[in-house]
Amino acid sequence: MNKKYTLQKNPFVVPTTDGKYIAEHFGLATNGEEDLSIAHMKAPSGWSEPFQTPEFDEYSFIIKGKKQFNIEGETVVLGAGQSIKIPKNTRVQYSNPFDETCEYIAICTPAFDIATVHREKE
Asked: Which residues of 57-94 are buried (b: 16+ CB within 10 A; e: fewer)?
């Protein structure tokens, strides 16, 4: 019998060097999904990424803690229960300058791809 759904029990845990936890449930790294990626993230206190200008829309939903977004020069801080959509081709920097880990869900359309994130060199 063919199932009409896909159950994800073993997300791909992305190896990182900055202490961030990334578990991709659906996406290029996990199952080759090109249209969408969904990842569970935990960003430790003091974490930040370089600025980037991705070729995909990114939605973030904050589960716990706070996350800071520098969106084309404007600083936005979200807390638990809040969400944001950042459209593709928008220059953004993600960070957690706060005293606690930020736990959140990230959804990218099309799927996150390191080749299309366009991170700037620090």
From this structure: ebebebeebbbbbeeeeeeeebeeeeeeebeeeeebbb
Q: Per the structure block, which two tokens stand in for 89?
A: 């081709």
Give the model confidence (pLDDT) of 11-67 as tens digits: 999 999 999 999 999 999 999 999 999 999 999 999 999 999 999 999 999 999 999
Domains of the chain: 12-117 (2.60.120.10)
For residues 108 and 61, the answer to whether their CB atoms sit within 8 Å is no
Q: Which two tokens stand for residue 98?
A: 């706060």
- In order, the DSSP letters of 46-68 are TEE---B--SSEEEEEEEESEEE
